[in-house]
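Below is how a single chain appears once it has passed through the pipeline. First comes the sequence as given, then the structure the pipeline wrote out for it. We keep one example in the README because the format questions we get most often are answered faster by looking than by reading.
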Amino acid sequence: MDQKLKNTRLIHMIEGIKVIGFDADDTLWVNEIYFRDTEEQYRKLITPYTQDLETIIPKLYRTEIQNLRLYGYGVKAFILSLMETALRITDGNLPNHVIEEILLLGKKQLSHPVDLLDGVKDTLNALVGRYLLILVTEGDLLDQENKLRNSGLEYFFHHVEIMSDKRTSGYQKLLNHIDIRAEEFLMVGNSVRSDILPPLALGCYTIHVPYPITWEHELVAEPVIHSHFYEVESLWDIISLLP
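Resulting structure:
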């Protein structure tokens, strides 16, 4: 991080926070890399049945985006898009055993152990009791509940909010539900599109913790410049921004 920016952030600490919301995937535990691994295995499965090798993943991405309004986010929605894309680019000429293997890829990803990111438990331990901690994530309800339970982090959180899509309206409902003013709420996450911009629009404080791999849909073109926006290198760094 730029030293000047770092010093500025340390001087202007975030005051008045009562509730801290944490994103889950790629903020508390590893997630996106497993989607990339599944994509690579999928590409190898499909390659013998199509001549259009260079566009397999781009076409998959377009299918995912088109299906968001129907399936939402998560591994189950991802697998449905894998199946649809495979059938389309092979003109339906896909052997049954390949379809079965695609389904197995999904089951493997759903049952993958939860790998916590560095510093997660230390950070939560340092904050719990000082602030009300809540989990704010999106995706498939059952999958996210399973990951939280298997993560060993469940006891840190006073409330768990699993949204179908992280929109401004969803964050406003959350603020209403926990009966908190926007300026008393801090959202921490790795996605600028989902974790930063919507709560920022409501007047909340936000801290961006970048993750090396980000789904294309979550990327934004313009840098965020806002008095309630902070960016740190690691989750533990947020401790230095709070009184």
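Residues 1-11 have pLDDT under 50 and may be disordered.

See the next section for the split statistics.
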